[in-house]
From TrEMBL:
The keyword Heme applies. This is Cytochrome P450. Keywords: Endoplasmic reticulum, Heme, Iron, Membrane, Metal-binding, Microsome, Monooxygenase, Oxidoreductase. It is a peripheral membrane protein. Gene3D superfamilies: Cytochrome P450. It comes from Hermetia illucens (Black soldier fly).
Amino acid sequence: MFNLEGEKWKFVRAKVSPTFSSGKVKYMFSAAMQVADRFVDTFDDIVRTESQRELRDLLGRYTTDVIGTCAFGIECDSLKDPNFIFCQYGRKVAKESNLNPILYFLITMFPNLARRLGLQIIAKDVTEFFIGTVRKTIEYRKKNNVQRNDFMDLLIQINKDGNEAGQHSATTRTLTLEEMAAQAFLFFAAGFETSSTTMIFSLYELSLNQGIQDRGPQEINDVLTKHNNKLTYEAMKEMTYIEMLINGADFRIFSSKI
């Protein structure tokens, strides 16, 4: 969406922005929780056999599985298999985020010139992988009438609503496959490394401060008690101290980059 212009940007923004409302995020909460449960099981297995563990890669695989499940509707298993193909492309996207700033400026500010020169931010194989993944997912869901309460469902519903509206208006159009893949990729690129890095900083802060170690779990236990020991979307929103811890980690990441 950041690289679109004019009416195309306006159209895609109007279609996609509502999918990131708090209500739509709540819609995907159960899918994220399923991955969280697998993460807990994986971590339990690790601490039984290892006294030390590098968390950056593990948390990166966790965020890959969450976004793969919520955005693309794929049952990723990179927590168990570090070489899972989705995880491989996640690492490649993270590396490409370090693109030469001059080249990035040229591509974003002079897109027509960049296209003529054959310049692009995302490698061709990455583009083909994500577009192919979205195409297969959409075809499978339409053919088998599958619903998973995730971001891909929301994109499919956008086009369904657009098709129905198009019967009454010649100017109404739907998202193309490439536009749908681009929004799912944006979801992935924006959340893959950023989320895992925030969790690492949060855990580091916990390791240094006994007071936070005591107060954080206490708030979690108090809130869960009010919700029959079930982590729901509403329960999570009540964990204000945990939110402050995460926001503090975000601030430290931002401060370290300026």
